[in-house]
Amino acid sequence: MTPQKQKIHRRHQSAHLQPSDQYDSDIPLPPTQELPPQRTNAELNLSVLQRHLPSTTSIVSIAPYAVVYIFTSTPQSGPAWEKSGIEGTLFICQQKPESMNGGEKYSVIVLNRKGLNDFICPLSGDIDYEAGYIILRSTSDETGEENIWGLWIFEEDEGSSTAGMREVNAKFIQDCAAKAARAARNVSTYR
Q: Residue 146 forms beta bridges with which residues?
């Protein structure tokens, strides 16, 4: 027989070997690792939010889906609402006070499912709820100009888990904004 035929013969022969039930190896098995502790959805959500806004201490309310609009006004087209490109889960969160004298602070956060820019808006006194939209006003830290935001929150008919979600979250946002505004007034009177 030629060497080539022997190689072919060995290949065919090895194809007929039965697999072994036992796995023998000189390499030691890795030590068994303990599973990480089970965390609730609330704990997971809070840890994600703290990555975006480290001062977050608790979640007041969650809406599964919201869309952020911005109010614009130009001389050519006049006033209009435009989608900001931010939509996703909405969280109403409480933050740590800035100092020992600092009062309660709250923010609305929308974690964007469509891009990398999230919506984070500190809450203060001026919140409206009109025609199914929560209207927020905020001053930009960078430019100092006032922005007007509209939040539309998805909700389904009665009997579903999202029924009444808009009104419930609008009330939470208004209450949190009022608490933050009172706390800010109280802090400024003590200074």
A: 139
